[in-house]
Amino acid sequence: MQGGVCVVSSAYSSRRVIQPSKSPQRRPVLRIGSHQEILNKSSAHSYVGFRRCRASRRLISRKLPVVNGRTQQASQPRFPGASRACPVPNLSSLASTGACRPQLPLNRRGTDMLYAWREWQSMMWAPALPWLQATAELLAKVDHITHAAPCRQVAAGCDLLVRLFRHYDKPQFGLTYTDMAGQRVAVRESVVLEKAFCRLVRFERATDCRHPVVLLVAPLSGHHATLLRDTVRAMLPDFDVYITDWLDARHVPVARGTFHLHDYVAYVQEFIDYLGPEVHVVAVCQSTVPVLGAIALSAAGHGCTPASVTLMGGPVDARRSPTVVNRLAVSKPLDWFARTLINTVPRLHAGAGREVYPGFRQHMAFMSMNPDRHLKAHADYYRAVSTGNTEAARKHRTFYDEYNAVLDMAAEYYLETVRVVFQDFALARGTWTVNGERVCPEAIRDTVLITVEGENDDICGQGQTHAAHDLCTAIDPSNRYCLTVAECGHYGIFSGSRWRTHIYPRIRDIIRRFDNAHPEATASETVALNL
């Protein structure tokens, strides 16, 4: 008893007796030790969490009323395991009842709130967007009146707002036909294999012509496989095209398991086995590393290897000519990426509870790499709509409808890719192991190797993709081809005019030359091989 205040030193006593104060003029305060002592003894931070601790402190320091010289008992306890004589929760009782569950660290809870806030923002804008779109369409039709120009400007502003705040779903390939020998041939998509996180899609052409089979491995780096629409469109007249259609991780239920980088490699091996040794693999951007790893593992294990592999703009050795992306990856520890960039899928999605690297974060990263270019593009779009330049507006919509459609990636896959590809450079250093087996690119012998780089690629620096030739030392020099395209950026490698007129014709001719089903090569094709 000190100065009329009763101090109970133990926080673990199952029965506590509060002695009345000798000075009834002052209302006693129940203090059970110090806050720090309680936290140290009970490890409340790791067990109950920050909010529970704050609630406990408020309850501990609460003043109790005095009636007729006696301190009243505490009110009904607010925690399981607490008694009237002891308003402080019994932590061992809480553990047995399961009332307290481990919570995410404060920094992770903050990032998860960002995902929830993003979803809330989309829901808040959803009712207004149709009205803005209707207003834009109505005012855009106003013409031949005194105030037509201001009306078109308002329409352009409404249209731009809709595009900035709408949610972009996965686009469709929309490839319903192709031209073969001057004739229009119908095309339809069919799923031939389906995995937990990927579908193998075939573009079936209504023709009896046999063409070389091409497996187009789309990157799993934030965008959908439809980003390669132009790549598929160019190949359809000459090849039987298959593509890996990666699923949005937030739509994959947690019950379907996790997805690691070695699962990606296993998927590619399974797809190659399904299509057979005559398949020609084309890997774009991020997919180059797991594709080369899959082929190397199959070659070392005497499995099925493709007739050729084309690696386009991928970080095979990210140490060469590092870009902004490469420098960011090595400037932060892996733990920073896990704490800062990983979120939990919120409710209302099939994959609720799954940890992911959200697509909107990746989209923000894409935009921040060239902010001036994107700001100018949107300003030009506003001017195009307000002045009636429909062709320029259409091109903007076509590009950004695809660019803004992003997907979530499984957290374990994303973090392993950062570590293996961009921090440890494990493939280039020969230290990458998949399920306990070391990846040995030097084991590849019978596969033709083609690498393609863009001179102005700001995502994958010069030499990073061509580094595959230094790793695949067992491939005959006559079966290796390097192509560096002048004045070509990252996306120009697989889409746009340079892809259609410069890159694709050369890749097509090489594949035709080395295709087992069509070993003969025409004179024109042989000339085109001089890269």
Hey, roughly how much beta strand do the residues contain? Answer: 5-15%
Specify the CATH homologous superfamily of one domain: Alpha/Beta hydrolase fold, catalytic domain
CATH topology of one domain: Rossmann fold
CATH architecture of one domain: 3-Layer(aba) Sandwich
The helix/strand class is alpha/beta
Low-confidence stretches: 1-107, 519-531
Helix content class: 40-55%
Number of DSSP strand runs: 18
Strands of the widest sheet, in order across it, are: 5-6-7-9-8-10-11-17-18
How many angstroms separate the termini? 93 Å
- Count of alpha and pi helical runs: 20
Instruction: Output mean pLDDT.
Output: 79
Query: What is the CATH domain class of one domain?
Result: Alpha Beta
- Which radius of gyration do the C-alpha atoms yield? 31 Å
Q: Based on Cα principal axes, name the global outline.
A: globular
Largest sheet, if any?
A: 9 strands, mixed
